[in-house]
Amino acid sequence: MAIKVFLVIQNRLRGIMFVPLAYGAVAIMQDLYRFPSKYYLLVIVANLATAWLIVAFATRLINNNLLRRVVNWAAWTWITLRIVGLDSEIQQMLESARIGLGESTISVWQILQGLTLLALLFVGARFLTRTTTTRVNSNEEMSPSMRVLVVKATQVALYGAAFFIGMRAVGIDLTGLAVLSGAIGVGPGFGLQRVVSNLVSGVIILLDKSIKPCDVISLGDTFGWINSLGARYVSVMTRNGKEYLIPNEDLITGQVVNWSYSNDYVRLDIYFGTAYHDDPHNVRTLAIEAAKSVDRVLSSPRAPVCHIVGFGDSSVDYILRFWI
């Protein structure tokens, strides 16, 4: 973070040095001339340079590049109009331009205010969501599934509150959204059924805690551990580095093998064979000792065992079972 701030200051170093020089020149001009008209343009330049620095540093808090550029240009344009004294005329012109929404109308000025407020509210909601996520993930008393559920619920609550507050601030009647939601409700029957099913399945997975982050699962030909739980899919990381995005619905309706559901123990079976002239007792003893020599192999309560499982054409077949 400190390095990022240092780089931002370094990139804006010329502007930072220009601002005090500009205001110093304004102070000198004020001493030399009694009439402000003599140094009016210099005051505007100094104010614009200051506003440019403030906007440049403030927009660095926005991580999204597109949103940062939009906010940067919008703020810079409005501050420029305000400094040169054209903000009132532009505001009156935007208020006179109105758009009809059914029986009511809304001005372009209200739309711009609403978009600005929504942007600020969404930035605040994103900051609160990140703070909450950091604190929830650091809480070791909560289960991994409960952490994901709390984070997702916080995101929905904060972004939903930001949206409705922004709509109310603009003056849009939210009762009209009931008709819109009714129309959207027809969607699941035609094209959004799988999307809604995945969302509901994701909530069920989080509530019943059947699958948690870091669990080792196998679904069909996919075997790996849970990397993250999303709203629509589960990220499964395999041993060869591939990451599968499995829809939540498949985990609810399909047969899933969770190798670490109740505990983290896994039994391994190793088949091998020896010649007929080898002593079976010595073979079993050596195989068990070899398994116990590995640190990951459990010695109790599930101790390694070795049994004869068959007689081949040229070897005695054994199975070595142990838990890790």
TrEMBL record:
| Domain Mechanosensitive ion channel MscS C-terminal as annotated: residue spans | 269-324
**Would the keyword Transmembrane helix be found if you checked this record's keyword annotation?**
yes
Question: Which locations, inside or outside the cell, does it occupy?
Answer: Cell membrane
* Topology in membrane: Multi-pass membrane protein
Q: Does the keyword Cell membrane apply?
A: yes
Keywords linked to the UniProt accession: Cell membrane, Membrane, Transmembrane, Transmembrane helix
Q: So where does this one cross the membrane? A: 12-33, 39-58, 70-86, 106-128, 149-170
- Check the record and name the Pfam families matching this protein: MS_channel_2nd, MS_channel_3rd
Q: Which GO terms describe its cellular component?
A: plasma membrane
Q: Which family does it belong to?
A: Belongs to the MscS (TC 1.A.23) family.
Task: Report the protein name in the record.
Answer: Putative MscS family protein.1
